[in-house]
Amino acid sequence: MHTNELPKHGKIVRIEEECQDVESFFISSKMEALPGQFILAWIPGMDAKPFCISSCDGSRFSVTVCKVGPFSEKIFEKKIGDTFSYFGPYGTSFSIPENQHLATVGGGYGAAALAWVAKEAKEKGCSVDFIVGARKKESILFAKKVKAAGMNVIITTDDGSAGLKGRTTDALADLIKNSRPDVVMTVGPEMMMYYVAKMCQEQNIPCEISMERYMKCGFGVCGQCCVDDLGIRMCKEGPVISGDLALQIKEFGKYHRDRQGRKVMYG
Amino acid sequence: MRLQTELCGIKLSNPTVLASGIMGITASSMGLIAENGAGAITMKSINTEGKTGHPNPIAITFDGGMLNAVGLPNKGIKETLEEIKEFKEQCSAPLFASIFAQSVDEFAELTKQLYKAQIDAIEINISCPNCDDEFGKPFSCSPITAAKATAACKEYAAVPLFVKLTPNVPNIQEIAKAVEAAGASAITAINTVPGMMIDIHTRSPILFNKSGGLSGPAIKPIALKCVYDIYEAVKIPIIGTGGIMTGQDAIEMMMAGATVVGIGSAVYWRDIDVFKKVCREMDVVLEKEGFTSVKEVVGLAHK
């Protein structure tokens, strides 16, 4: 009974701009984490919020943060040498395949977690198609890095300013038709993941998704991130779950809950 | 079979009860707890209008226990009634609603609104340690206010009324007697113990709320003493809560005088199937000690 959930502290050793308003913070701190897991970044007196880990090598990890509100703005104020406090890592991780054809489908910031998944998979002999979507050219994340690492990148944008004009799911459908992947992993907006999971189920392709829910404690006691009807906790039995399990969750693609537990419908 | 028991006329398949505050927000999460063996479920506390709760960190753990100040987030009575309905449609485990309020009138009003709800009991939380600023001194700190809140609910309660007490009083027997006289059907003891943890590096209390309620193994001896004392003072049953991790702990708590035991923080250390685990362990202890029913154990430490 020697586990505990107390804050940990690391030094920021590197900051990389990924695109406008998105930066990766590399933190020097001992950590054993796997792709898909998350931390709670802590700013004392303000809050502690979940961020997915975008890389980890045992002594250094990174989180990729988008400047969207007061909390992320506070993180953006941090400089190299500053302390980064956090809790975790928490949650389940992606099952990295070996010697298979993997397709990842990332929308928006979801690409951060998937770039790490893709890298690990390639090291284990997989061929990887990295499908990444964004609203416009300037918001595409990790495409250059993944391409530089020797993987095939398929870009889609809503406005057609880069890659294919359209959705990541269209790109996945094409891929399945032309060069069917053995396994699919997806992170991004819930409706996108819903369609990916559906498509994979119909095509009988194993798939994993990362389900984002309002998280408080991070270690499975507060009940904030339980999903209907199964009741399972997305901080503990998730966030990474199989597509088949996700499709058994009745709220998947339909609604999530706010910090008071009230239902909020998608779209 | 050995583990079947009864609390205020409510039949329980075993004496483990999910304590209020852990999981217990949605019908689905409560269903999962029931699937994992809990004899009954206590919901997370609700009030009339709902509440957003505190920012993070809301809970931390250390070798001896857990410290939390979640701030009673809830969506209010109206939407909670729907969760109750949904739970009862899919699950037969006894369900206890838990309510907190700013005033005696609000306690009465909440009880009134629960009149038609398909619940098996109401627990009134008059002892949350994390709301001092907004809610004044907890009702359970004085026999007079504790009795007032109890009596106000009793008038409108259609089901047994449990009153949850704080250990943080000079004489818990006085409070227990007062709520019994005011009509409590059972006493839940104990709520968490006020505490604090400091982070050296950032020179700050760790919880957003600075202080919080301590639970888990560290408070087991406090809970045992409170339950033991309450058992000597009143005739109504006790839901013994505080630091129950194993079947052994549960039997100890029942020997101190608890009819059933509350389990909460142990969900963290032993995971969500802790209820099944504790039951299995209780069964082994009962067998070894030669008991045919768990009911025989209650109060045995009083000689």
Architecture overview:
Chain A has 267 residues and is α/β, with parallel strands linked by helices. Chain A is 22% helix and 34% strand. Chain A is built from 6 helices and 15 strands. Chain A has a 7-stranded mixed beta sheet with strand order 10-9-8-7-11-12-13, sandwiched between helices. In chain A, helix 4 (168-178) packs parallel to helix 5. Chain A is globular, with a radius of gyration of 18 Å. The model of chain A has no long low-confidence stretch (mean pLDDT 95). By secondary structure, chain B is an alpha/beta fold. Chain B contains 10 helices and 16 strands. Chain B has helices at 27-35, 76-90, 104-113, 132-135, 143-154, 172-181, 220-233, 247-256, 266-270, 274-289, and strands spanning 5-7, 10-12, 16-18, 40-42, 59-62, 65-68, 95-99, 121-125, 161-165, 186-189, 193-196, 198-199, 204-205, 211-215, 238-241, 260-263. In chain B, the strands form 4 sheets. Chain B has an 8-stranded parallel β-barrel with strand order 3-4-7-8-9-10-15-16, surrounded by 7 helices. Chain B has a 4-stranded antiparallel beta sheet with strand order 5-6-14-11, with no helix packed on it. Chain B has a two-stranded antiparallel ribbon with strand order 1-2. In chain B, helix 1 (27-35) links the parallel strand 3 and strand 4. The chains are: A alpha/beta (267), B alpha/beta (303). Chains A and B meet through strand 4 and strand 6 of A and helix 1, strand 5, helix 2 and helix 9 of B.
Give a quick set of tags describing it.
heterodimer, A: 267 residues, alpha/beta, Elongation Factor Tu (Ef-tu), domain 3, Rossmann fold, 2 domains, 7-stranded mixed sheet, 6-stranded antiparallel β-barrel, 34% strand, B: 303 residues, TIM Barrel, 4-stranded antiparallel sheet, 16 strands
